[in-house]
Design a protein that fits this description.
Elements: E1 5-6, H1 8-16, E2 20-23, H2 27-32, E3 33-34, E4 39-40, H3 46-49, E5 58-62, H4 67-78, E6 82-86, H5 89-95, E7 101-102
């Protein structure tokens, strides 16, 4: 099976070569802090918006810790996309000293009021 997780450094390299960068976190998480140049497609909307993604280019997805983006990558690969997840998510990206715009916040798992 193809490698689907990339280290933050390898992900940054692919992004630099033109891969699309997708944040699958919630809008409030994205607003607080994200990787510059990304596009927000929340995990629960990915199925509806995946058709907008280029099938002939590499796509790098991330979330906070890697779980949501890992699941999203499996779904996209099953549909023919060349998709990868940043291993450890934006937390690992930040730990590697790579730049983020803002700050990483705790995931709010409470349902909206």
């Amino acid at each position: 099976m193809a490698e689907t997780e990339l280290s933050p450094d390898r992900a940054q390299g692919l992004i630099g070569e033109g891969a699309s960068l997708i944040d699958v976190r919630n809008p409030d998480e994205h607003e607080a802090g994200h990787i510059e140049g990304d596009r927000l497609i929340p995990f629960d909307r990915l199925k509806d918006e995946a058709g907008d993604l280029p099938k002939d280019e590499q796509v790098v997805l991330y979330c906070r810790g890697g779980d949501r983006s890992g699941a999203a990558v499996q779904a996209l690969r099953a549909s023919g996309y060349d998709a990868y997840s940043i291993e450890g998510g934006i937390l690992a990206w930040q730990e590697q000293g790579l730049p983020i715009d803002g700050e990483v916040v705790e995931r709010n798992v409470l349902p909206p009021a």
